[in-house]
Structure formats: C-alpha cells, structure tokens
Amino acid sequence: MTETIIVLATTFAGFLLIDPFFGGALTKATIAKWPLIALGFGSLAFHLVGRALTDPRRLRLAFSEVLHDWWPIILLAFFITLGSAYARFADSIRESFLGMGLGMFFLPLLAVAVRASRHPVGFMQGLAAAHVLTVLGMMVVLFADLHVFHEEIFVAVPLGAYLLVARPVKLWRLLLGFAAMFACLFSFKNTTFLILLAVLACCGLVWIQRLLRRHNRMGVVAAVYFLLPVLLLGVAALFWLWWTNRTELPSGNVQYRTEMYGIAWRRFLESPLWGTGFTDSSVVYFELYRVATRVQTLPTHSDILDLLAHGGLIAFTLWGLTVWRLFSISMAAARQLAAAPAGDPNRAWRWLFVLGLVQLGALITYAVNPPMINPVHAYWMWGAAGVMWALHRQLVAPLAAPAPVQHLVPRHLQFSRWALLRAGWRWLMAAARRRRAA
C-alpha cells in the first residue's frame, strides 16, 4: 500500500513535468511545488514507518548502506537546506535554494525505501511504469506543440535509447524509440542536442565493446573496418548540418550566460571555502539589457557554479563525491552489458544503464541551466539516482528474503481474527448489561 502511494507521488511528479495545460508554467508555480514536496516526503515517511513496524532489521540494514554510500549528498542537502531556511525565514529572501536542498533528500530516502522494500522488483516496476508514462506524455505534448521542453528533456532521451537497443528486437520498440528521439528534437534546444549526442555516444561505446569481445576475430576485423567509415561519415554529416544551419540554431544566450557566470565566479573567489553558506538569494540582478520578463533578477543558469558560489569548495567536493558514486554505478552497468552474451535481454542491467543515462543528461542540463532549484526537476533527478543505487544493490548484493509479517509485528499490535471477534462480542455484551442496568 505505501509503495503504491510512492508510485502515485512519482506519477504526480511526472504530470507536473509534462505540464500539458499550462505551457511550461506549472513546474514553476508554487501551487505545484509544495504539494509535490508534501506528497513525496509524506509517502516516503509513511512507507518507512511501515517498514519500521514490520521489518526493522531490513530497514536498519538499508539505512546503514545508504549512510555509508551517500553521506556526501546527505551532508550537502543539510548544508543547503539549513542555509536556505535561514535566508527564507530569517532574512525573508523569497528566492532561496530551499528547493535544491529539499530535493537532494529524495536520493537517500528513495534509496532506503526501495532497498528496504519487501517486494523491491515490483516496487521498481511500478516506478519504471511511471517513468514510461511520463515520457509518453512528453512525446504527445512535443508533437502537439503545446510547449517546448528544456530542463525536462533528460528524462525522455535515455528511455528512447533503451527502446532502440533492447533485446530481443521488436518493431514496436524500435518505432517508439525513434519517435522518442525524434520528438525530443522538437524542443530545439542546445541542451537537447548535447544530451542526444552524449546518450548515443554512450550506447555506441557499449555496442563497440560488445563487438570487440566476439570470439570470431575475422568478423570483428571486418566489422571494425566497416564501422570506421560509417563513423567518419556520421561526424562529417553532423558537421555539415551544423555548418549549413548554424545561423538558425539556438544562440545559447552567450552574452547573458557570460555575465551571470562571471558574477558567480567572482562570488566564489570572495569566499572560496564555504561561499555564502546558501544564505543569499538564488537570483541576481542582470543589468546588461532588458530581458523579456517582468523582473530583472534571474538565476545564474548553472547549478554547478551556484554550488561553488554559495557553497564553496565544501559544497563542490560533496557534490563531486556524489557524482563519482553515480558514475561508478553507471560504468558497472555499461561493463555488464558489454560482457553479456548476444541476445541476452538483461532487462535489469539495461534499466540500470538507462538510469545512468538519466544522470548523464541531468548533469549536462544543470551544468548550463538551473533545474536543481525546482523541486519537480529535483525529484526526477535525485529520486532516479536513489532508485538506480537500490537497483544496483539488488543485483550485486540482494538482501535476504524477509520473514513473514506476523512474526515481525510487535506483540502488542498482534491480533488474530478470533481475538478481534471475541473482543467485539465482549464489548457488545457489556454494553447490553449496562443498558439493562440503566
């Protein structure tokens, strides 16, 4: 039951990400952010309390593993949240980093929730279904031209890659994979192009490793000699497309970004160890020219630079350790897929690889954009990382099967059906005697 609520919370986060009716404004609205935070943390807390009552040993093991592996992001989340809470409630700074700090807590909490689950496979299948439904909704919105996705595209591209490389090959999967990739191009953003190229490059590297591991050496040599000219032609085609269409491509707002990045860098140099402690505003005044908005206070457009400017080397180091852990899990999935026999579906490892690609796309996105500040994006970014870790642990070191629930429930909470019936019968008889005496 509690796992179903978490899946529903993830589906709600997907609906906010799709934003089918508000044209890109829903994820930024306060009316969407706080219900998601309440539903996300509430469902996770409800689930963990249930695990504490029914299987405390399993929960303790999950907590100890998460603390061992994810202490950097837990410390970083506390650092950002405490500083932002001070800015929000003591200094009345409305545009704070509170969403960034709270969003990071989704990683350890979802990791514990999935790891401590009595049925982790079914739980992760439900979360995967929410992911697929979200991407399908994004495709419909993109094809219908309801609005343009930008900071959300890192969720969609990896699933398209999974459908293209899944085994056994099926026509509907290929068509859906090509549709997902093609739909993402409708966003027409430089971030999308970078994510597409990075995801396809990672899939190509895995495929090349599988090719080089074949036992038929002559076949390997022939394939390599065929592959090299294909790659060269592909690079030449991409260069030609860029050169002939470079004036029509998105500019990337180089002047704006240069100014904002310079402000963030100078702020870091003023306090390189801990920055502002996240007690300052998450937006700064842009004075080069008027922007087509109602205000001139805008975000830096680089969450990595914000970590440096407001958290200094302390925040940057904690973030770096977190990214390194995610990178190591992604590499383990890539190696496993590269070494798998031909035709082996390897669904679990493929999903792990997809979640790694989600983290790669998220990294590209928040390197040049500010999605971390938004709790909707943070839920997908860090929640997917927590599920990724839990899936990896389930594959390499599964926990022992849990004991039956009735032996784990505390004695004062154990009731059989006959005991409840007897208690009810006694209550009715006592009520009848009191009525006759009256």
From TrEMBL:
InterPro entries: O-antigen_ligase-rel_domated. It is found in: Membrane. The keyword Kinase does not apply. It is a multi-pass membrane protein. One of its GO terms (cellular component) is membrane. It comes from the Bacteria. This is O-antigen ligase domain-containing protein.
